[in-house]
Amino acid sequence: MDRDDTIAIIGAGIAGAAAARRLHAAGRRVVVLDKGRGPGGRMATRRGPGALRFDHGAQYFTARDPRFAAQVAEWAARGVAAPWGGPGRSVGVPGMTAPVRDLLAGLDVQCGRAVGRLVREDRRWRLAEADGAALAGGAAFTAVLLTCPAPQSLALLAGAGLDLPGLAEVRYAPCWTLMLAHDGPPPLDGPVRENRDPDATIAWVAQDGAKPGREGATVVVQAAPAWSRAHLEEDAADIAERLLDALRDLPDVAGPVTVGHRAAHRWRYARVERAIGEPCLYAPGTGLGFAGDGCLGPRVESAYLSGLALAERVLAESV
């Protein structure tokens, strides 16, 4: 590949951000597109009324691989991440989106851009919305790296009559998340409550406002995968009430929970249940690849390492 060519990355989560930063560091031009209102993907922070903020996606990250451990240490040194919630756990500061935003700083990131079609023309790629309207100014790209969840990536590939073998094997569990602002004392004695019982309604409760850099009496409640799957298509307002009732029924909740704000968010592709088992997928000679936690497993670190691996595949082909 010509080093002057531009690479499109679809998805501004941690995998896309890691790939974009690595390619940029190697002198490649990148454009990152995401359908959301801002970067972060499932490392998400939702705004509530006033100054309320909720980490309603990934709750923390850990680092085992030396490459990610070095990145986390560098973030911590600059105040982009900090320990929280247990040994080896870290969070973004002031929100979970902070590490992703840091990786994407200074790059061409276009949010609110829903890619609906991939078009192959003269050994280059063009991106379009579902109705055919051109994206990224109609630019032609040498490579397109898919880092959105596997089902969304599969839909884009199918529309272009393409496939990346192995991608269809990825499976995700959904998750309903409840965001609460409460009055009075916090409902938990500690920062988190975890429940690994597959038959439970609630899998996770966090004192979100107690995380480093946060403000406000806020709590995030995440439903268990089986419960979320069973209630996936129900109304968000009804889900919020159901999860609030389940929170109040927990035996270790400290007294009544007086709610000032509540909202529920549905994640269809929350946690990988079956991964490909490869660092990334890449079709040599086409510039088409896939990275994300669907490759290596359900951890922020896995998505980061997958993004790096895909960037390295692109760079190796351009030598």
UniProtKB/TrEMBL annotation:
GO terms for molecular function: oxidoreductase activity. Residues 90-315 form the Amine oxidase domain. InterPro entries: Amino_oxidase, FAD/NAD-bd_sf. Pfam families: Amino_oxidase, NAD_binding_8. SUPFAM superfamilies: FAD/NAD(P)-binding domain. It comes from the Bacteria. This is FAD-dependent oxidoreductase.
